[in-house]
Design goal:
By secondary structure, the protein is an alpha+beta fold. The protein is built from 4 helices and 12 strands, in the order βαββββββααββββαβ.
Length: 210
């Protein structure tokens, strides 16, 4: 069966600096790491996209492997699942509607940071991209999940509106995005991006069930 490929490039410039900052034993220059989320599998044709407003379109999707739950605008069977990661790539989960593409990427990292350290790293991870002339930042703010700091950015780039949230929890980086063409965007769409973002539930040592 024909393979279908989806890719997004994420700039993770904070991974090695964080590890070495903790050990403080190495003074070698830290290379910039650019990790690519590559989701691939043999799949039947993609299902017909639906609208966010449709009845019963929002459904919970759970990953036992990565210990998260999130609500996608699709049936769980229609969420594209690429749950294998490598040293260079993220695991990825995504679906699309008639307007937008919804993605969650996750990667295991051997790092643990407090909230003040997280704030610095979140700001640095997208500094180059979001400060470029081709990007117009609409808003950015701090958010919290399980009392841990996360970061949210909303910006415009190359004719698209992009919503982004990132969290580093349980030694995993969770990277959530919603993107759609700028011509399709109205302020009323924000509620759908926030519905997706706010539904994320990550199982931690403090909230494990059973």
């Amino acid at each position: 069966m024909k393979k279908i490929f989806y890719s997004i490039t994420l700039s993770l410039i904070f991974i090695l600096p964080t590890v070495l900052a903790q050990t403080k034993k190495s003074k070698k220059k830290i290379p910039v790491i650019r990790a690519t989320v590559t989701v691939r599998a043999g799949l039947p044709p993609l299902p017909k996209p639906h609208a966010e407003e449709e009845e019963n379109i929002w459904n919970e999707y759970a990953s036992e492997k990565y210990k998260f739950k999130i609500t996608f605008p699709a049936k769980p069977a229609n969420v594209f699942d690429g749950d294998e990661e490598s040293a260079e790539t993220f695991a990825g989960f995504q679906t699309h509607t008639v307007k937008a593409l919804y993605r969650l990427a996750v990667k295991s990292l051997n790092v643990s940071l407090n909230n003040s350290q997280l704030d610095e790293k979140y700001e640095s991870v997208l500094a180059d991209d979001l400060n470029s002339s081709r990007v117009k930042i609409i808003s950015k703010r701090n958010i919290y999940l399980n009392r841990r700091l996360g970061k949210e950015f909303i910006y415009k780039e190359k004719g698209k509106v992009c919503f982004l949230r990132m969290f580093l929890q349980e030694r995993k980086l969770f990277w959530l995005t919603v993107t759609l063409p700028e011509k399709e965007y109205t302020k009323n769409f924000d509620k759908w991006a926030m519905k997706f973002f706010d539904s994320l539930d990550i199982e931690t040592k403090d909230n494990q069930h059973g």
